[in-house]
Amino acid sequence: MARKIGILTSGGDCPGLNAAIRGVARAAYEMMKDVEIIGIQDGYRGLIQGEYRLMKRSEFSGILTLGGTILGTSRQPFRNMRVIEADNVDKVKAMKANYKKMGLDCLVTLGGNGTHKTANLLSEEGLHVIGLPKTIDNDIYGTDVTFGFHTAVDIATDVIDRVHTTAASHGRVMIVEIMGNKAGWLTLYAGIGGGADAILLPEIPYSTEKVIDLVQRREKAGKGFSIIAVAEGIMDREEAKMKKKERMAYRAQTGFASPSYRLAHEIEVTTGIETRVVVPGHVQRGGTPSSYDRILSTQFGVHAARLIQEENYGNTVAMVGSQVTHNKLSDIAGVPKLVPTDHQLILTARDMGICMGD
Ligand code: F6P
């Protein structure tokens, strides 16, 4: 009997998803000979609604360099997985029923933190699940790196580079707001790679005065422009003391689209230097994966196929040191990986005189 592998991609997409899908499929065909791969459409939504198809081997060709995901994706919040909503569907029951209907031996889920929480839930419900860690945020516990991250670092670094030249021409302050959700990994890497003068991370509540001081010091030193790399999840020192709801209300009342715009306003009013905000947004998640991510995704995909071959389920693939390995889903699900404030790269930045906002 053929081994049946279901595969889905869930949550925000990123470069490298197709390369990882290809890695799983090619290695599975190679290792297990009699294999059928069922593609589940649009992540857990497809698993809930029973949208899936038997994939042809040819569908895994020519996708190594392709951005996005050939399977489609959607966000299905974990917090609602056990909640019966207006459509009256018991989502967990439906996913289990469709897994059975497809006759799966295993389900491979490619995704970030939310995806891993649901993967763990399904594993606890008795399904055979293997996770693959993808996200530009690099915030999955237990792995040094997630695929998609380094491509996004390259893109965000390129944005900072381009902003650099125009900032210098105009003598402006430029704030580049970088994705990453609650984690500062992407901003830290791109900020250092792009030579930012200040790097603000969610993990280090910032003082507006310190940032303004940096801009003024640079101006006095004859450098009329400054580049500030800002993570989308930043908080100033006051906001960091607030509960989430309180912070949201405070922000809504100040009327700025994001903390970056508020900071830009404060810098401009205090220093008199024109200040602009650049938000590359989803550009950071688009397009072809870097060679680093193609290699990582392939390694991760192949490791997942090996776990399936060994029937070693309930795990997610990881990179630790320079070794591809795996962790138990139950050990990593729901544990965010934030940047430790004593991370070597933060110390490197400080030693370079980069302002970290504190
Ligand atoms: O998790 C990836 C990510 O790009 C985050 O960095 C960002 O906060 C979020 O997704 C954006 O989500 P959406 O694509 O749903 O707007």
Helix content: 40-55%
Under the CATH scheme, which class of the largest domain?
Alpha Beta
**CATH fold-level name of the largest domain:** Rossmann fold
Q: Report strand %.
A: 15-25%
Q: Largest sheet, described in full?
A: 7 strands, mixed
Q: What count of helical segments does DSSP give?
A: 13
List low-confidence stretches.
none
Heterogens: 6-O-phosphono-beta-D-fructofuranose
Gyration radius from CA atoms, angstroms: 22 Å
Q: Could you spell the SSE succession in H and E letters?
A: EHEHEHEHEHEHEHEHHHEHEEHH
CATH architecture of the largest domain: 3-Layer(aba) Sandwich
Residue-averaged pLDDT: 97
DSSP strand tally: 11
How many domain units?
2
* Overall body shape: elongated
Distance between the termini: 61 Å
Kindly name the structural category: alpha/beta
Q: How do the strands line up in the largest sheet?
A: 3-2-1-4-5-10-11
Describe this structure in words.
The protein has 358 residues and is an alpha/beta fold. It has two domains: 3-148 and 289-332, 3-Layer(aba) Sandwich (Rossmann fold); 152-285, 3-Layer(aba) Sandwich (Rossmann fold). Helices cover 42% and strands 16% of the residues. It has 13 helices and eleven strands. The chain has helices at 17-32, 44-49, 91-102, 113-124, 149-170, 185-193, 208-220, 237-240, 244-254, 259-271, 291-309, 329-332, 344-351, and strands at residues 3-9, 35-40, 52-54, 106-111, 129-133, 173-178, 198-200, 226-231, 275-278, 315-320, 323-328. The strands form two sheets. A seven-stranded mixed beta sheet has the order 3-2-1-4-5-10-11, with helices on both faces. Strand 4 (106-111), helix 4 (113-124) and strand 5 (129-133) form a beta-alpha-beta unit. It is elongated. The structure holds 6-O-phosphono-beta-D-fructofuranose. The site of 6-O-phosphono-beta-D-fructofuranose (F6P) has 11 residues, from loops. 6-O-phosphono-beta-D-fructofuranose is lined by residues 12, 75, 112, 135-137, 179-181, 232, 285.
